[in-house]
Amino acid sequence: MQQHTWQFFRAGGVDQVSIRTGEDIAHIGELDQTLWVALACPTRGIQFDCATLDLIDHDKDGRIRAPELVEACQWAAAQVSDPDVLTSGSDALKLGSLRTDTEEGAALHAEAERILRWAGRAGEDGLTLDEVHRRLAALNAMPFNGDGLINPDTLQDEPQLVELVRRIMKLYGSSEGVDGAQGMGRAALDAFFGDVRAIEQWHELALDHACVLKQRAQAVSAAQALNAVQEKIEDFFARTRLAAFDATALVPLSPSVAGYAALGQDLLSSRSDSIAALPLAPIAAGGELPLVIGLNPAWSEAMQAFRQHVVQPLLGTETQSLSLTQWQALKAQLAPCQAWLGAYPDSALGEMTPAEAQALLEGGAEARLQQLIARDEEEKLHNQHAVQLEKLLRFQRDLLKLLNNFVNFADFYRREGAAFQAGTLYLDGRSCELTVDVADATAHAKLAGLAKVYLAYCECRRKGAKRTIVAAFTAGDVDFLMVGRNGLFYDREGKDWDATITRIIENPTSIGQAFAAPYKKFLRMIEEQVAKRAAAQEAGVTSAWRRRPSRWCTTPPRRRRWRPGCARPMWAPSRPSASRWAA
Predict the structure, then answer these.
(1) What pLDDT sits at residue 578?
(2) Which residues of 251-262 are buried (b: 16+ CB within 10 A; e: fewer)?
(3) List of E strands, 410-511
(4) Taking a C-beta distance cutoff of 8 angstroms, is the pair 1, 395 a contact?
(5) Residues 455, 474 contacting (CB under 8 angstroms)
(6) Quick one: which of 451, 508, 452 has its CA closest to 477?
(7) What is the DSSP letter of 580?
(8) What is the pLDDT of residue 86?
(9) Rounded-to-integer distance, Cα 280 and Cα 250, Å
(10) Of 243, 377, 460, 463, which shows the fewest CB atoms inside 10 Å?
(11) What residues in the chain have per-residue pLDDT under 70?
(12) Backbone dihedral angles phi then psi of residue 287, each to the nearest 5 degrees
């Protein structure tokens, strides 16, 4: 296989590869990456279409690396018959430039024709990026937009399904569609009706268990009532049997007077936990469990349900108490009912009657919803092809420009405005075009200082918004560049920002600056030392003058006099006359 021949140009003191033709783009993966100026770039913070960068960033980590850019170039070159169309910089694609000898190319060609028919331009050869955007926007606004989701807001012509879809979304979750709205997917639909079928089967198995109560509702009520009090009844009979075994255990097994006295100190109700913890009924050796009178008030309602749904159907309505033998017989009779009740499907649906489950399964709602999802999924392939067309159009417009700001810095050296340049900084009577947005000035300065360039980090403010840039000063005097110096920054959109220097990395901007720098530092050191010494002497004189006692004797105007012992004012004559200083 013949290798591609590259051409180079000299810029920035290094030889850089020239990328001009479609073949250069198609073979970019063959270029030794040691010849690339950059091997990664962010998807945000540079002057480039973020949507295009996001299409290249496959792993969505916010950075484009060399393999991702190579893959994008190779994919774009594989979709067109002549890779030179990728150098046009146009967002209009001629259908004749698409390959039709590959499955993917043929699908893109068919979708392009479909979009042109939708736009009313059937038979024409040119498709624009704007037309693809409009088609995707229209597709996303349709009830069937290819995302495989059902939005209840689009089912206005079938109101009987709206509430069901909302119920499924609430219980089983929803997904965000391509239009940003929440919808129900096939997985949630299958999970809902799967649980409904499981509940219906559970109801049908009610009579398969050897439960003494044959009616389904009766068996459910009996099992539920028994489950509610079973542990408490077991506790009662265990205490009576232990008291029958040893009479000395009767008193410890029964509530004590001290315990009741402690209860009396609290605000009581029949549902208090402290009362519910007491035995179900008074303990007697080998005694029976009363079912009407003498029950713990905290358990009266549960015991009433137990008597109504378990004792009376099995032992008769006249039964007022329950012996240990009767209790064990009841448990054996209702054990199958309890096993069936414990097998109720655990789902988000909770309790559901057999009638409701049967209505959902036989009403045809499931089949209709499956049809709607299938119809929506039919548009999914068209949607994917439209997205691929958008991707190809963006690559045709932007790939060459991106390569000239990534693999080489051709745009920068041609002074056409590189993608990484943030704008122009006006400060100290000069303009700086080499400005870059910086997210973390401290981290950036650690490596930026190795460039041996005079760098000024500036905080820019505009209408409450802030951004940090770093500007490179490559010529002129830098004596008046200092932290706190203000300037004006214009971004690439022409918006003006107030800029203030917050940090400086000092490096000479010319040979003359480098030669004079040591002498300037020496003179600056002498000036600082002289200033410090003068300031110290001034502070000492001022402090001594403030500590000297005042000898002035002040009097109201026209009555000032000078007395011996008072310091003579400077305006006083050396020999004051008596008439002048008389009172």
Answers:
(1) 44
(2) eeeeeeeeeeee
(3) 423-427, 430-432, 435-437, 454-462, 465-473, 486-491, 496-505
(4) no
(5) no
(6) 508
(7) H
(8) 95
(9) 15
(10) 463
(11) 1, 140-143, 178-179, 206-211, 214, 509-524, 545-583
(12) -75, 165
